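hey can u run this one w/ erythose-4-phosphate bound, need the structure tokens asap thx
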Amino acid sequence: MKFFVDTADTADIRELAATGLLDGVTTNPSLIHKSGRKFLEVVEEICGIVDGPVSAEVVALDHETMMQEAAVLRKIADNVCIKVPLTIDGLKTCKALTDDGAMVNVTLCFSANQALLAAKAGASFISPFVGRHDDNGFDGMALIADIRLIYDNYGFDTEILVASVRHPIHVLEAARIGADVMTAPPSVIKMLSKHVLTDKGLEGFAADWAKTGQTIL
Ligand code: E4P
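ok here u go:
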């Protein structure tokens, strides 16, 4: 499963990129607002840090303006992935952009039928928001399982990008189901390495090693 980080904080992106675990980045208008930086400038910086897809979202609601915004974003770097909303205009934009060779991430997906439409529109990625789904009393992971089944039934190439990930269990479940990608905040990605028994084991080894009085270097 590929790991994307869901942030516009370039310090966090650099730190994670250095681990070699990062396959891409997703941003959205709220994350850009949180960064307090200029959208185009921050996307350009992120594209210079990671080689993989960097999702940058259009903000227009109509197809024509989405296409104009996408043209600006595509000029930033080859690894820019245009993020469009799951609306009829967004799907039309997805089809036009992918036909023209662009990477497209269709975002704000909350149903398997929406995901089916995105695949038919040629999306590179579909982003079902599991956390927001759960927050509203739906079963986010059941949605991922449905999309996996449907995409496999028809051999769609669209990658399932599990978004709105809140905790490590979301990542575990997404991997069990066979999602292609997950995007999570830096804190959640770091949490994946944590285990109380790892910490306890390290403490024990360090204490016993100190008693040997030896050094390696
Ligand atoms: C995905 O691309 C979105 O940016 C993101 O995962 C939304 O997550 P949130 O529900 O935590 O805002």
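The chain has a mean pLDDT of 98. anyway lmk if its weird
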